[in-house]
Amino acid sequence: MTPTDTEITYTPSDKNTGGEINDQTSGNYTGDDIKTLDWREHIRLRPGMYIGNLGDGSQSEDGVYVLLKEVLDNAIDEYMMGFGKQIDVTVTDTTVTVRDYGRGIPLDKLVDVSSKMNTGAKYDSKAFKKSVGLNGVGIKAVNALSSDFFIQSWRDGQTHAVDYHKGITATDSGIQPDTESTPNGTLVRFTPDAGIFKDYRYHEEYIVRLIKNYTFLNTGLSIYFNGKRYYSRNGLLDLLKENMTQDPLYPIIHLRGEDIECVITHTKQFGEEYYSFVNGQHTTQGGTWRNSGRHICKSRGAGVRIADKNQTHITRHGARRSYCSEVYRRFCKERA
Question: Domains of the chain: which residue ranges?
Fold first, then answer.
């Protein structure tokens, strides 16, 4: 094949230098080509590194739902640490508001946690022992990828609010007395940048599914979405019932410990069905806890007898074929 102008050729005669690479179309590579981006510029230039798929909101994995989840995760972490039993979520076609009633972000660090990368309180187990986030990135990505981002914290009679546009500070109230005796907590309101998320729109069905999972994994937490309350009394038991398409062959086994919860049953369906969660995160790719459940079912399946009307005998293969289960595990940071 004859090399074209755009192909890279190797010159074998240049043995001492390892050969020459010739690209006739490339310009000179100089120090002027090296650039350093600040946190906001990098997120906006490479958003996929931070939130994955951008999309327009028509798919549940689209970036606008990742932005919502990043903010909600912080509110959930407060509940997991025992602060605040209610979260208010309001979503229009284009704008999200999340209000929790936890401890509130420390007022003197409000700007840092919302606009300085790798800044947060979740690197050790002092303030947050079993949180989802670890990297100090999430809410900064939401800020940078939003045309408008507003955050306000209330703590013990004082408040601090900051407004951003595309990650750039627009107004900063500083720490002020709270004259209205507002409950402690944090409010975040953001509008994803339509220049990045083209023609996007939030779809209620995807948000409802996300919120239901949060309540199933955090028994006793109330989340009000656009005024409607979502709440779970029975945790994973409610989640499994929500997802099952057939009646169980026997009463669902529901096991709970301090930091672990598991539900197991069999149906007449064909195939396996597993759901696993760690620290509130749906581990869709599996992992140790889901794999161990499958192994136990496979190794213990022989000899299991289901008390249905046909006295069905379940083989190892059959035990997994009609198996439905969910497991939820919480880890402290040093063990995560």
Answer: 45-230, 236-335
